[in-house]
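Now for our target.
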Amino acid sequence: MEQISIDETDSRLLDQLQRDASLSNQALAQRVHVSPPTCLRRVRRLTEAGLIERQIAVLSADRLAPILGFGLTAIVEITLDRQDAERLAAFEARVALDEAVQQCYRVSPGPDFCLVVATADMPGYLALAQRLFTADANVRNVKAFFSVQRSKFQPAVPLAHRGPA
């Protein structure tokens, strides 16, 4: 992958897009003080370079929970019995395919993985645990922490050059 450099304007663009990706090109250009054609060209370059993975809507899990029935979030530590590259990659690939797994991190030291999972309820979590952990002979230890309240959720990447809010 080609290395890309970003300047202050790129940093301001990225910061604004993290805050609100629904801004029109015109509004985004105005916020970062560039012309609309310059803004569009820079956003395309940042996207093509892979710095912008995708643009999504961040939904309110707390407000949707009573409507959809997704009310249980857990942070799960997983330790594998054997940690060779092939087994780590296989576990990682399997959990990445499961819709209930929202985030997966390979970590060190301590457990091998930390997952953030969301299920409707405890029976939903038990079904997830069965298909992802119990059924895998290489999973040695599972430690789950169940969320009672989300105090902060901020998916933004901290940028060195912070622009105006």
